[in-house]
């Protein structure tokens, strides 16, 4: 078998991720590779840290880009903070809340699940009821933007409830960072993780993470070793500290961090609130067009995630055939339903660079064509 260089066909990515990557970010990937302890690279790391603090709206000193995807960011938060002696309340309203529960189970901690309806935001009253019933709870964990359903939860309110019961919060912001309002310090979030490939429109494989002072203290003072060596954040604090000589932990993904630096710089130049407004504007345009096609949303309007539009597949329409047609005829990717919505829904992404008028127009025209056939 003759194997040649792999050159993919350009696609318009409007699924649940990865999202379209801007030409500027792709160009940054091709810059010369230098050593991960090179003073030039270390200086760029400091800028990445500062840009991430802006994106998260935090002054947390421990704000880094984990050299692994968002799922590893999730695990890093749990393995560094949670011990078998802890009680963790996890709000589940989709697939990624379920993944949080798996982390708690594997760590041997007591798990309390607040079951929510798929396609709806987390119910703050249900969380408060669970905390009243479990006064020994140490942590509250929830997904801000549930990618499997397109539901956006009220993170500010959920964090305020957790604080009333003296619980630290662990928040999944994989799909929310850069796309909707998120204020880590103001809302009192203790540990948060995201992904590079969603609204940051960067290449996959990096997970922005930020720990509050309370969370950092837990990491520094724990006596039992963290169950994962690679994800033990106490070992990378000196690498990202910016104070004196950097300690060696692993070979950082140098060129991918170039790309993240560029994408974060683009976000800073656009302005965070302008980015939030752009995602909302394109969502409204898409929603209006989908309504004209008779396509209905799963999530109520006031709980919808602008950058991940979860819609019901119209009756009599073949899910796989439509998605294949869009890919083959329009080089357009939209996502299939996940979990309870598998085969029943499409997930249409408007994340980062993909949240543009031309993408909305292409998606609506392509869907209209596919449905007519």
Brief summary of the model shown:
The protein is an alpha/beta fold and 373 residues long.
Can you put this structure into words, describing what you see?
- Strand 13 (335-336) and strand 14 form a beta hairpin.
- It is globular, with a radius of gyration of 21 Å.
- The strands form four sheets. The protein has a seven-stranded mixed β-sheet with strand order 2-10-9-8-5-3-4, with helices on both faces.
- The chain is built from 13 helices and 14 strands.
- The chain has helices at residues 23-29, 39-56, 70-81, 95-107, 124-133, 155-164, 184-187, 213-221, 237-240, 254-270, 272-292, 319-330, 357-372, and strands at 12-13, 63-66, 87-92, 110-115, 139-143, 145-146, 151-152, 168-172, 191-193, 207-211, 308-312, 332-333, 335-336, 345-349.
Topology:
Layout: E1 12-13, H1 23-29, H2 39-56, E2 63-66, H3 70-81, E3 87-92, H4 95-107, E4 110-115, H5 124-133, E5 139-143, E6 145-146, E7 151-152, H6 155-164, E8 168-172, H7 184-187, E9 191-193, E10 207-211, H8 213-221, H9 237-240, H10 254-270, H11 272-292, E11 308-312, H12 319-330, E12 332-333, E13 335-336, E14 345-349, H13 357-372
Parallel strand pairs: 1-12, 3-4, 3-5, 5-8, 8-9
Antiparallel strand pairs: 2-10, 6-7, 9-10, 11-14, 13-14
Helix pairs in contact: 1-10, 2-10, 3-4, 5-6, 10-11, 11-13, 12-13
Could you list some keywords that capture this structure?
single chain, 373 residues, alpha/beta, seven-stranded mixed sheet, three-stranded antiparallel sheet, globular
């Amino acid at each position: 078998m003759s194997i040649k260089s792999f050159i993919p066909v350009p696609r318009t990515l409007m699924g649940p991720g990865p999202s379209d990557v801007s030409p500027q970010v792709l160009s940054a990937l091709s810059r010369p590779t230098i050593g991960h302890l090179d003073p030039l690279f270390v200086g760029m790391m400091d800028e990445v840290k500062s840009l991430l603090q802006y994106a998260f709206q935090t002054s947390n000193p421990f704000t880094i880009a984990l050299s692994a995807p968002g799922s590893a960011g999730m695990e890093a938060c749990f393995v560094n903070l949670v011990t078998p002696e802890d009680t963790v309340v996890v709000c589940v309203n989709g697939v990624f809340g379920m993944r949080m529960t798996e982390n708690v189970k594997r760590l041997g901690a007591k798990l309390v699940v607040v079951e929510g309806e798929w396609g709806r935001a987390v119910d703050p009253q249900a969380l408060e009821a669970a905390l009243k019933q479990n006064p020994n709870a140490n942590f509250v964990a929830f997904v801000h933007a549930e990618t499997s359903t397109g539901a956006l939860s009220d993170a500010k309110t959920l964090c305020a409830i957790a604080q009333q019961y003296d619980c630290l919060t662990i928040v999944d912001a994989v799909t929310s960072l850069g796309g909707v309002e998120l204020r880590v310090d103001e809302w009192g979030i203790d540990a948060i993780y995201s992904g590079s490939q969603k609204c940051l429109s960067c290449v996959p494989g990096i997970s922005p993470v930020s720990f509050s002072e309370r969370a950092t203290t837990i990491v520094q003072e724990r006596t039992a070793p963290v169950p994962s060596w690679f994800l033990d954040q106490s070992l990378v604090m000196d690498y990202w500290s910016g104070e004196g000589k950097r300690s060696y932990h692993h070979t950082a993904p140098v060129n991918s961090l170039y790309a993240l630096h560029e994408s974060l710089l683009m976000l800073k130049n656009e302005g965070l609130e302008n980015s939030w407004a752009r995602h909302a504007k394109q969502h409204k345009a898409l929603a209006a067009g989908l309504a004209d096609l008779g396509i209905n949303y799963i999530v109520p309007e006031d709980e919808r995630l602008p950058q991940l539009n979860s819609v019901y597949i119209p009756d009599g329409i073949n899910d796989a055939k439509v998605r294949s047609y869009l890919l083959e005829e329009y080089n357009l990717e939209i996502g299939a339903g996940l979990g309870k919505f598998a085969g029943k829904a499409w997930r249409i992404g408007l994340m980062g660079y993909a949240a543009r008028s031309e993408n909305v127009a292409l998606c609506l025209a392509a869907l209209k064509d596919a449905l007519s056939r």
